[in-house]
Specification:
The protein is mainly α. The protein has a domain at 256-316. Helix content is 72%, strand content 4%. The protein contains eleven helices and two strands; from the N terminus they run ααααααααααββα. A two-stranded antiparallel sheet has the order 1-2. Helix 1 (3-48) packs across helix 3, helix 1 (3-48) runs antiparallel to helix 4 (97-108) and helix 7 (184-193) packs parallel to helix 10.
């Protein structure tokens, strides 16, 4: 068998291996998506029997402030069934977020470097907790203030009787707005950790960030100053919390030299921050951006060693030629 045929067979085997690996990833992705859907379905079935009680709890901040003799209404024919159904479905997703993130993490973790895994775990946990805190802040603090304000400014002779469908849409929008807003410390931390900016630069742009917080509050909340301020001020305070956390846990300015590989001829040195020590250099990947395997890394080092040996051999030959030329010149001088 010729070398050309052997190379063709090797290329064919590598292509089949890549196709097999891609298929394995797709199968794993399918299984994890099914587990996520099944988890949401199980929680939904368990909670649906209590859908009316759950909606009552969700509407309690408004019901407690409504005048006597008034109540919420349902203007749609299917609203009495679909509104609690929608609320229970949303609650099922919120309650299973930790499990959903665990499934996503288990799928992408094998392709991450060690320092990325160390950073991702606390960030995921803090993101989930901050999202829940945002929802709790909206329910226990924002809703009583907002509903009390809206009911208090109702014109005389107007009975406040909110439709349950519109109420659900309103509280979902507020929950998402405050849940996302409470992720500001994580976003700030990630920007600084990724090297996009620094804590000092962000602190210098604090006035613009405060203005941006009020713009976000205007876009994500109802058109009144109170609700906008109740969202903008927490965003600003959470931004300050992100700056404090980045200054405490990140030290990107200090650099250390770490020898990756060394022999008598050369040494490969990686310059990195302490949090990235003992990891593969970030630029060790192929043309497609995939990390190199151990075998490919070993081959890379072997190629470097071979190149160094060839260069050393060429230098020796050049040195021998120079010595030979010098000896010939000395002999010619002696003959003269």
């Amino acid at each position: 068998m010729s070398n050309k045929e052997t190379e063709q067979e090797d290329m064919k085997d590598q292509q089949e291996e890549r196709e097999q690996t891609l298929m394995d990833h797709l199968i794993e992705l399918r299984d994890r998506l099914l587990h996520m859907v099944l988890a949401i379905l199980i929680v939904f079935i368990a909670l649906f029997a209590f859908s009316e009680d759950i909606f009552t709890i969700a509407a309690e901040p408004l019901l407690n402030l409504m005048p006597e003799g008034t109540s919420m209404i349902a203007t749609g024919v299917t609203s009495p069934f679909l509104v609690p159904f929608k609320l229970v479905m949303l609650l099922s997703v919120l309650l299973t977020i930790p499990y959903l993130l665990h499934q996503i993490w288990a799928f992408i973790a094998p392709g991450l470097y060690r320092h990325e895994k160390r950073m991702a775990t606390p960030l995921l946990i803090s993101s989930v907790l901050l999202f829940y805190f945002g929802i709790a802040f909206a329910y226990f603090v924002i809703f009583p203030i907002l509903f009390g304000f809206f009911i208090g400014i109702a014109p005389e002779g107007v009975a406040v009787m909110t439709d349950i469908g519109q109420y659900l849409d309103f509280i979902i929008a507020i929950f998402l707005a405050f849940g996302i807003a409470f992720e500001v410390p994580v976003a700030t931390f990630l920007l600084i950790a990724a090297g996009v900016t620094t804590a000092d630069k962000l602190a210098g742009k604090r006035p613009y960030i405060i203005i941006g917080a009020f713009v976000i509050g205007m876009m994500l909340t109802p058109p009144d100053v109170i609700s906008q301020s109740l969202l903008a001020i927490p965003i600003w305070l959470l931004f300050e919390l992100g700056l404090i956390a980045s200054r405490l846990f990140l030290n990107v300015s200090e650099k250390e030299e770490e020898v990756i590989m060394q022999n008598d001829e050369f040494a490969l040195i990686e310059e990195s921050s302490p949090m990235y020590r003992d990891d593969i250099p970030e630029d060790d990947h192929d043309e497609e951006g995939n990390p190199l395997s151990d075998a490919e890394m070993e081959k890379l080092f072997d190629d470097v060693e071979q190149e160094e040996e060839d260069n050393s051999h060429d230098d020796e030959e050049d040195s021998d030629e120079e010595d030979s030329d010098e000896e010939d010149a000395d002999e010619e001088e002696d003959d003269e």
